[in-house]
Structure formats: C-alpha cells, structure tokens
Amino acid sequence: MSFGKESAKGKKEGDLKEFWHFGQYVEDDAERRKEYPENVEVKELDQFNKVGKETYQMLEKTAKYVLRALALYLNLEETYFDNYIHNGNSILRPIHYPPIKQEPKNAVRAAAHGDINLITLLMGAQGRGLQVQRNDGEWIDAIAEPDELMINVGDMLSRHSNNKLKSTIHRVINPPRELWGTSRYSMPFFMHPVSEMKLDVLESCIDEDNPKQFEDITAGEFLNERLIELGLIKK
Ligand SMILES: O=C(O)CCC(=O)C(=O)O
Ligand SMILES: [Fe+2]
To answer: Can you tell me which residues the record assigns to a coiled coil (predicted)?
Structure first.
C-alpha cells in the first residue's frame, strides 16, 4: 500500500505510513475463498510468506480466545464468536513508518481513530509512538513489552455491544525531531468476522438506561462504508 494513501476517518492529510497485508487462508470453503484477494507471493524473500502465515494463524487463534472471554463478559455463549470469525476477513498488517524527511505540517504517523473490526492485537512495536485516549480525553503512551499484546476493542464490537465495550481511540504520534531519522515498525492483527455477520445491537446490551445506539448493519456493509471514508476504495 503506497505511502500517504490512507487517512483516518474525517482527516484530509494522509498518514505517514506504508504497509503490507496478509489476508485469510481459506482452506475449507471454495465460495468463501473467492471473497478475498489471494495473498501475494514474495519470491525474493525465502521465509516471508511462511512466517506471515504462521504469525497470522497464531494471532487469529489468540484473538479467538480473547473473544471467548469477551463473549462471557457479554453474557453470550462462550463460543458465540467462533463461527463468525472462522474464515473471517481478518488482516495481519505489518506497517512501516519511514523516517520523516521534512516538516510534516498536520500529518502524523497515524491520526486518531478507532479500528473498524472486532478486536485488534498489537505485538510490541519497534519504536515508541502509540497512544490511547482515556475516557477523560487524556492521551497516554501504550507501549507493549516484548511478551505482551496490546488489545483494542474495535468499532464493530462497540456497535454490537451497544458501547458496553467501547472502541479504543488511539493514534501514533510523530517522534521528537532528533528521532525523525528513524523508522517505526508495528504489526497489528485486525480480527474481522465474515461479511454476513450482523452487527445489530445485542438485545442483552439494551435496557432503559442504555437504549439502542446503533442502526442494524452487517460487518460487510460496515467495512465497505469505512473503507470509502478512509480513501482505500471508491464508491
Ligand atoms: O502502529 C501502531 O502501533 C498502530 C497502528 C494502527 O493503529 C492501525 O493501523 O490501525
Ligand atoms: Fe488502529
């Protein structure tokens, strides 16, 4: 994905980043397989596709267990999400934030946003910069240690749970000027369900104090809407 092409929802400046995508490896459903683009084979790097696939599948499995815990928290069956995420449209996205060569004006490495998907798993990034916004509006550093994962709730889960689980607003700030010459690398795993999953607010998350906050929509429709807003696909 070319540099500067993606911008956060509602922001005109492109983010200062470039990235690769590893997508779903559908091995048991010919119809579903046609829904996703083929993963691109990189012949120049011997281990690239193998390591990408292994990383994808390990993070996918980890995310599945996290969603099981969240399902229990939402008073759902423990395995509620399992069928929705099997062969889901999840993405492993290694990102490179290149050295900054000139005054970026209003552009940042990643402008403030909520992720589109159910949950995001972030392995320790190489280089600081990630911040999350607290409920009181203050931004705090969110730096995972090598043996830790940062886990964000995304907008799809926030809709489905009527905001009982709030989408984590986060951003990647530019480094101080003396570190402009350094790259940053990060590797989020975005857990997405299959496109036909209904994100309609769960009945169990609606009551008098917390009326239904979101319109009914499927994951596929919601993703499409958001990709248009991010400048990644055309209407
Ligand atoms: O670079 C990071 O650590 C986070 C990237 C991110 O938030 C995103 O790509 O959605
Ligand atoms: Fe994000």
So the answer is: none
